[in-house]
Amino acid sequence: GAVVSQHPSWVICKSGTSVKIECRSLDFQATTMFWYRQFPKQSLMLMATSNEGSKATYEQGVEKDKFLINHASLTLSTLTVTSAHPEDSSFYICSPAQWDQETQYFGPGTRLLVL
Amino acid sequence: DQQVKQNSPSLSVQEGRISILNCDYTNSMFDYFLWYKKYPAEGPTFLISISSIKDKNEDGRFTVFLNKSAKHLSLHIVPSQPGDSAVYFCAARRRNSSASKIIFGSGTRLSIRP
Questions:
Q1: Mutation choice for A interface testing from B101, B104, B108, B109 by most A CBs within 10 A
Q2: Which of A17, A62, B68, B110 could bridge across to A58 with cysteines, CB 3.0–4.6 Å?
Q3: Looking at beta carbons, which residues of chain A come within 8 Å of B51?
Q4: Residues 6+ away with beta carbon under 8 Å from A70
Q5: pLDDT digits (tens, 9 = 90+) for B63-78
Q6: Distance (Å, rounded) from C-alpha A96 to C-alpha B106?
Q7: Are the beta carbons of B91 and B36 closer than 8 angstroms?
Q8: What pLDDT does B97 receive?
Q9: Is residue A87 helix, strand or coil?
């Protein structure tokens, strides 16, 4: 399967601060990046989809000004949680993909805890 | 609107026996289905998939069955092993002209007891 890394693996921050999560596709070029989050005991919910060099498309209910996504290269995408609040505490997972790729692979995830 | 449903939140199976995890979907446009295994604080790990043109796909101890008319698929694990204890997610996608997003079910926690 594909090799995907995320950094950091976990982060604790104070309410009101911004947190940046990096996702790297290590062995293929990702034309598309999916960002998911998972709250405790819930399913993985798609937050947004970004294509390299384009603006991200956000799912209903996800604030684009709060969750900033940058996909400037084919191997790196970042998700910035701006002015984080305790309700943003979650497990964030990225999934890089190529055009017409059948199987989707996921990063190891980043656990965010906002105090 | 939950397009992919896993109605059993948990399942307990004795080691060595068969584990059967079920999944239903509502969107008839889905044409590719995947099963993922997930441990806490880790990303999902791909297990097995099936295209809508098939009704069965087998890989080692894992077999996925697809019943398109019933919009139902199942994952069979046999024999079940202690390391299989995890949360299993069913997922579906609709392929189009670009990489298409995956929709996940709510997951089934599988526990393999000795």
A1: B101
A2: A62
A3: 102
A4: A50, A77, A78, A80
A5: 999 999 999 999 999 9
A6: 22
A7: yes
A8: 45
A9: helix
